[in-house]
Design goal:
The structure is a homodimer. By secondary structure, chain A is of the alpha/beta class. Helix content of chain A is about 25%, strand content about 25%.
Chain lengths: ~650, ~650
């Protein structure tokens, strides 16, 4: 028998899940198959070292790696992405490697649900009618008589029309619903037929996608998905109450094919691998979904709708639409407005007739994450000039108000999402989300959830750069300055700054920020700043003209606004004008799911927004180069920051 | 090796088609598999004897039958439905058994096509805007630039909106079209992108179901299908020109499960065999389609739309909708208005995204064949009181005008469709469609097409009864009177009347009308008459109030109106008020296919028509019993017929 035919059991602890895999499968792949989620940032490239697990029984084939310490090796630690199964295995997943439930806490707004028939956006006063894209309607039908001999289907449509005001002409059902209708109605043992119909918006029509006996209106759920380049976030919502029940996130597994989507588009094109990219994101979504379902004791059939917000490229990957024209002048998407699809036809494992709605894009580089975010903050209803910035792997910038909106996009890189930074991580439990450094370089920090730190998330990284700058540990160029403190130390790869010692960390090793990390973060903030500056200049506006700034992204639950300015990510605008709104892309997906009004508003925003191309604008590169300093090469742009820093450091005088 | 594993080649002449089948397959099944069409009325029950074929080489297993003459047996004739394959076979199909092309001639109206943007109904002045449910639109798009960077999908929708005035919001495409769009557009080598989009009406939306390079607007075809209880007729139409290209019909293979649909519903329910009934009708349609495609050198992908008209039960069978409630008080259909479906999901082999539209029903016993027919004759626009009668296996009667319409249905049986009558046949080539009998009982007749007679179709049978009555060969009760003529002769089964001698017939045997045939035809005409009488009475109207009568059905291309009254199928109404309109059900399907206006009108008619139940009306049975005579028991109802007959026969004085 050939070697390829061997297969082995892999048992995971503490999950107590077992799976049979072929010899040679990686432990990470086996874990994915078993729906056991393991931290992994690099997507199996053996560079992040986040997927450490312990072999309790059995043996694996594993290449040498410097990402495991001698002590770890002695204790049978392996990198799950590198180790290949060569026997039956018992694997235990240490705490720092586990992806556990409820890591991203639901904010109070998110759990609010419906108040007086309204659902709430990300800002006070921004609210939309609670009227989900897919809704369950309880109906009581009169059984037919010789005098009222309307067929079952028209009887059902008449009842929906009377209750919901949807014209019978705009209502329809697929063949399967028609086939099941007579039996469903006649299950009723009472003198009235009591059923619940689930109706989904489909363009100008409303499709009856499900019927069942009795009143099940409270038992309808939907999924809002933020399909990010680096991070995928899924939120489980009750459609009737509007309440968010749970949330779950993971790094986008497509990262193994490139950090930004341009790299992935090139990969897809060169290798003819578009379908691989799609399968990868679908697997991620199905994985998150299975966690949410298990944790909330729901079945996949219970999910009656999905809304997806994401940038244009991510949506193209999701649907297997040709993305190659996105990266070639004149930068054309296949579609901005995606028709309503069945989630099932993409491979998403929910009720087979449930629709999937994509939030519409503005252009190849400004997607539904931005139009959804703009809706969630009510940008299109603002009286005054507003700036809306969503900091993800791309930094998108929108400027405008209820009269006009212009937008652009800059490639910021994933560092503020915790990727491409040695000890970076998503804003989930164990992440340092706030950090300060005293003059003696002693540290204070705040961790999401309880327990010891596992890494640093976006807001913590931003704080770190600002604090290093204030404390004098780094200079204008972001270079670590070797001084007396043992926190700044030399390694083979250059200087690094010690944040948490091994003894205080769950990972069992020192947590640091490296010189390379700092440079990555500076490039990210410079991309954002220069996008804002270029857009303002194009519109002949100054930073002081901006009355409100809304900053969005998966930083954490808190963002220190002064630090955002201190590092020069934003121009100097009075901090009371700046508001951090969290993950506005997810909010856009959530609000669209719960409100046809909100979804219509997103479409309206997508139609109205004017796209401004940075790539064809030579000013952008000039601005970017000038912004690659802390806070900026030009002191006049950041007078108050220079003033603050000058008090301590002569270099800023 | 077990016997079941043998398989044999069966080669059919003159078609020169070969197929491999399992041992034990009937020759009829093999022929169906090979797409070789053989006459068969009884659907394999060995009662009609129409499926005679000749075994040229090889041998079959065949039970004894009286339907083959000793001479035929000597010449290796077999019944294809009874003979089972037990070796390789060479089968030749004699002319009378062949179903050949173009048997039902297209009338001049049907081939008219579009005049001044209008298509024509069955009566002068009845016309509808030529605007097919599915249409091909030639578009010339400007390729995108940095200034006009609309995505491909929105660019396509914009072009359709500009050309056709369809709002972009009402236009959508499925995922497959989206996926193929960028490549299709960029196949264009010119400075403008020239493509043809096929757009299908789907409720309030218009779905882009196909895109292709260049201008192919003239190359779009659709199929109109009359799904009758006894006969299925398919007509091939060019969507752009509105011209009917070809027509093909077959007996409905479901006949093996019952002559009328009530029997079939019972069969489906008792045997849990609804899907068998559906597969049967789909196979019939696919068979007819393959003949039309082959004869017109088209591919299945060329067919972009199907419209189906049929009674409510037939549509339920077609869609596998539960029909059992149709036959139980209060007689409820699953649906009257069927949503737009994909033909493909029913198993009809045309382009996979082509829609199937069903003409809407009024009630469980009045279907889309009637609403479509009413539209085709413009009944809902008539100023004066009209009577519309469609004579099929059910006889449906509509009374009304533009103010109101009432309808009912009576079970007439299939005898006027040529079924249940010894030498009956469909109105196709070789059928006697007109017949007269002189006083000496000598016959004259007219045959459809050229050549010798193969059987008698509906109009010929109607003429036969009238002529037998006039000539004195039958009495009031329809009994054949044994006289001096050798044409009326005694057999073991009773008297029969010789119509064509074996020498003059293609079948090689005498063509007769039997006593049983006559009784069947009288019952059929009585059902129609009593339905008309009951409906008139219910509305407190008299026959003389009716200004126009439209008679429809698959009789042939000609119907002798005086004979319709002579046999008492219709009350005595001046013959110049009576018009034969042919197959109005097919016309309804054809007009709907070619005109969104016509289809909208059918829906409007279906909503407005009031159904009148005969089964719960005791008058109907009384009327039926009185009508079971020629022309009727009551001379006062038929004064002119009595007067005419009295001149010759004392019994009518």
């Amino acid at each position: 028998m050939s070697k390829e035919n061997h297969s082995y059991k892999v048992h995971f602890l503490p999950h107590d899940r077992e799976i049979v895999v072929q010899e040679g499968t990686t432990v990470l792949e086996a874990a994915h198959e078993a729906n056991v989620y393991i931290s992994s940032i690099c997507g199996g490239m053996a560079t992040c070292g986040k997927c450490k697990v312990v072999v309790e029984e059995g043996h694996v084939e594993s290449p040498p790696t410097i990402l495991l310490s001698p002590e770890e090796l002695t204790n049978n630690y392996i990198l799950a992405c590198q180790a290949r199964v060569t026997s039956n295995l018992l694997i235990s997943i240490p705490p720092e490697t586990r992806i556990e439930g409820g890591q991203i806490l639901l904010s109070s707004e998110e759990t609010l649900g419906v108040t007086a028939g309204k659902i709430h956006g990300l800002l006070p006063g921004v609210e939309y009618k609670h009227d989900p894209l897919v809704k369950k309607i309880f109906l009581e039908l009169e059984p037919p008589t010789l005098d009222d001999n309307l067929p079952d289907y028209e009887r059902l449509k008449r009842a929906i029309m009377l209750k919901e005001g949807i014209s019978m002409e705009a209502l329809e059902a697929g063949l399967e619903i028609l086939k099941g209708l007579p039996a469903c109605l006649r299950q009723n043992r009472e003198d009235r037929w009591r059923i619940t119909a689930t109706v989904a918006q489909h363009g100008l029509m409303q499709e009856i996608i499900h019927i069942e006996l009795g009143d099940t209106t409270q038992a309808g759920w939907g999924l809002a998905v933020d399909v990010g380049t680096t991070t995928i976030v899924t939120e489980l919502l009750n459609l009737a109450t509007g309440k968010a029940l749970d949330i779950e996130a993971t790094y986008n597994s497509q990262m193994k094919w490139g950090e930004d989507y341009i790299q992935r588009i090139m990969y897809a094109q060169e290798r003819n691998a578009l379908e691989d990219l799609q399968k990868s994101v679908i697997k991620d979504i199905n994985g998150l979904l299975s966690i949410l379902l298990a944790r909330n004791h729901l079945k996949s059939e219970d999910i009656k709708a999905i809304t997806c917000s994401g940038n244009t490229a991510m949506i193209h990957f999701l649907l297997v639409l040709d993305p190659t024209l996105i990266r070639k002048e004149p930068y054309i998407a296949t579609a901005n407005f995606i028709p309503t699809l069945k989630a099932n036809e993409l491979g998403i494992k929910i009720y087979r007739h449930s629709p999937l709605y994509c939030l519409p894009s503005v252009a190849a580089y400004v997607g539904g994450d931005i139009t959804g975010g703009a809706m969630a903050i009510g940008l299109d209803q603002e009286e005054v000039l507003c700036l809306f910035i969503d900091i993800g792997t791309n930094g998108e910038v929108v400027l405008g108000n209820k009269e006009w909106m212009v937008c652009c996009s800059a490639s910021a890189g994933p560092s503020f999402e915790g990727s491409g930074v040695r000890h970076g991580m998503r804003a989930s439990s164990g992440a340092i989300e706030r950090l300060d450094i005293a003059e003696d370089l002693s540290l204070s920090y705040k961790i999401i959830g309880n327990g010891q730190p596992r890494g640093i998330c976006g807001s913590g990284l931003l704080d770190t750069i600002a604090a290093l700058l204030r404390s004098g540990a780094i200079n204008k160029s972001g270079k670590l300055l070797k001084g007396n403190s043992p926190r700044i130390r030399e390694t083979e790869e250059g200087l690094e700054f010690l944040i948490v010692e091994a003894a205080q960390s769950t990972t069992g090793s020192d947590m640091v920020i490296t010189q390379a990390d700092i440079q990555n973060l500076i490039r990210s903030k410079a991309a954002i700043y220069s996008a804002v500056a270029t857009l303002l200049e194009a519109m002949h506006l100054k930073p002081s003209d901006i009355q409100k700034v809304y900053l969005a992204g998966g930083f954490g639950s808190y963002l220190d606004i002064r630090n955002v300015i201190t590092i020069g990510m934003l121009p100097e605008i009075p901090t009371d004008r700046i508001h951090f709104v969290g993950n506005s892309s997810l909010a856009g997906a959530r609000l669209s799911l719960l409100s046809q009004e909100a979804f219509a508003r997103v479409k309206d925003i997508a139609s109205k927004m004017t796209y401004f191309d940075l790539m064809s604008n030579p000013r952008y590169m000039d601005e970017f180069i000038s912004a690659n300093f802390l806070p900026h090469t030009n002191p006049d742009e950041f007078p108050s920051v220079y003033q603050e820093l000058a008090a301590k450091h002569p270099a800023f005088r």
